[in-house]
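Risk register update: the risk of archive-format incompatibility is retired. Evidence:
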Amino acid sequence: MKFFKDPGLQDPIESVDLGIVPAGKSQKVTVYVKNDLPRAELVDLKFSAESCEVQGPTTLKPGESAPVNVTWTPTLTLRQPLKTSLIVKGVEIYRPGRG
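Archived output:
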């Protein structure tokens, strides 16, 4: 599974940069996830990130991609931007190869 900044899946990322957000305001960033496993369907996916609300797909077939929305609403105005990693839990279901 890989994450990308763009829907064309050309700009891979390792963390999500939500920038500096004033207290009580929300910042939403959309990133894209791709199932790069050739024979495994990913099911029961649950996405999370520290201090953020995350909405993403629950299933990804091999080669499939989908948007993941990350929203941060801080209660304090911080002087530093929030950079966070996405955590994904789920199950890999492997299908037999054709051949």
